[in-house]
Structure formats: structure tokens, C-alpha cells
Amino acid sequence: MRLAAKWQASWTIVSSGAESERVEPVRLERGWIDVVRLGQGDPIVLVPGLAGSWKLVLPLAKRLARDFEVFAIGLRGDRSSWGGDGPARSISDISEHADDVARVIELLGLECPTVFGVSFGGAVALEMAVAYPHRLGGLIVHGAEARFRTTLGSTIARQVLDRFPLPTDNSFVNQFFHLLYGVKPKPGPLVDFVVDRIWETDQSVMARRLALLEAFDVSDRLWRIEVPTLVLAGLRDIIVPASRQRALAQGILGAQFEVIENAGHIGFLTHTADVVRNVRRHLRRVNAAFQH
Q1: pLDDT along the chain (292 residues), means of 10
Q2: What does the alpha-carbon distance between residue 226 and residue 239 come to, in Å, rounded to a whole number?
Q3: Is the torsion defined by CA of 148, 152, 155, 156 positive or negative?
Q4: DSSP 8-state assignment for residue 78
Q5: Rounded distance between C-alpha atoms, residue 45 and residue 266, angstroms
Q6: Superfamily per CATH, domain 5-291
Q7: Which pTM does this prediction carry?
């Protein structure tokens, strides 16, 4: 499970706010994506959500990197942190994102890593798990379900993002991000961080990804997932309620389901320690089972 030799010394240093990260721009057949590498140990490939790219999941990546080697990847369509020319073609469905993740794993020379997807990235991870069941050694999903259920709110959000240019400093628009917390958050650095990172993703890309979610459905292919799986749900998640995430876990043979108390859709940011604790416990259990 070690990094392929060709990548060992190729990481460049890119600033993300006050700190610098090791970032490798990886060229795929259909565009560029960033890969951020942190820590040492068993590998975890971290797939971000609908907006914010790898930068939004960086706090989670850093906590995980205390115990694991983490590869936080971008998605095609994110603004490249290194100044690349962006995606060569638009994405037509979530399976293309899954293809990208599988290709990155191959290029990095990772042998069956754990793939951890949050929110939209959870859908990508699920698609990869059913399409490439032998490319990953474990699956962790947070804030996702087997079939996205369109709501009036998501439909309106997609149409607004697609049709109307929105200012990134509009306090009225930014209030909608409060839904991600499950409860009204207190103003502060975390709220500012989430708003700033989300608006780094072009609103047309966000609209397109919402449209991709509306067509997403792996409910009839969950039987293909044979790797140890953990589904993490925020108890206060109003975007994808915990009951629907529990149904996802029930549809995957042997999957573990854990609820994070008081967490919403972005529990990976608001309750990072709880998320990491569950991941560590799950992977320890998996390793122990393999040893026996």
C-alpha cells in the first residue's frame, strides 16, 4: 500500500490560507485534479463534497493524517490550486467522477486503499465501490444515500445557481449554508471558512453537480460492494436525514452504521474528532478481522 515511486518526490508546495500543503496536480485523460498528501500509515483517499474542493475537507484530512496516510483529492471542475487550465470537458454523470478516483488510485500506485467520501463525494465513493469493487479495500460514507431524493429546495437551489450570478459576500445567500449544520451556527471562523471555501467553486459547477445527484442511483447495485463499509450520519442532518443513511447501510452486506450526535450534514467539520474516532475504531476492527 505504498505510494508509487514516480510520485515520491513530485509533490509541490501550495499555499492554502495561512498554511502550505503538499499538492500534486494530476493530469487525467479528461482534465486536471489536485491531490493533497498528508501523514503516514494505511492509505485513505478522501473525496470532497459538492463545493469547496479538497480545501473544505482539509481539517478532516489533517486529523486523519495523525494515524493514516491521507490523499485528499479534488474533483474535476474545481478550480485548480496550482493555476492549471481547468477541466477539459464537463462531467456527464457521477460515474465519470468515480472513474477519476479510480484512475488517481491507479496513478498513485495505491493498492486497495480505503475510500472515504463526504456528501457529494459519498455518492462518488459509492459509485466507485459498485463500479470498481476490487480497486478499494474499504469504504466510508458520510452524508450520502443510495439514491438522491430531489426536494423542492434542491430544485430551486440548482435553478438559482444555474441562472442567476450571485455575489459571494451576500449575507442573505450565505444564510442558506446554515442548513449544512443542522442547527443555526454561531458566527465565527468555522462559518467564515465554510462560506469562503464553498464560493471557491464556480456556481455553475455547483448547479451541474446538483443535476448529477438528481440522476444518481446505486440502490440496485449495492450488492456489488463487498469491502468493509462504514456509514456515518449526523443525527441533525436535514440534507440527507440519518434514517436514509441508515437505509443505505442496511443495503450493504455487513456495513456498520454510526450516528454522530448533534452533527449536521457537515459533521466532518463541526464534529471532526467524533468522525475520526469512528473511522479509527472501524479500521482497527477491520484489521483485526483480517489478522484472524
Answers
A1: 45 44 81 90 96 94 96 85 48 92 94 96 97 95 89 52 58 72 88 89 84 92 96 93 96 96 95 97 84 59
A2: 27
A3: negative
A4: B
A5: 18
A6: Alpha/Beta hydrolase fold, catalytic domain (3.40.50.1820)
A7: 0.87
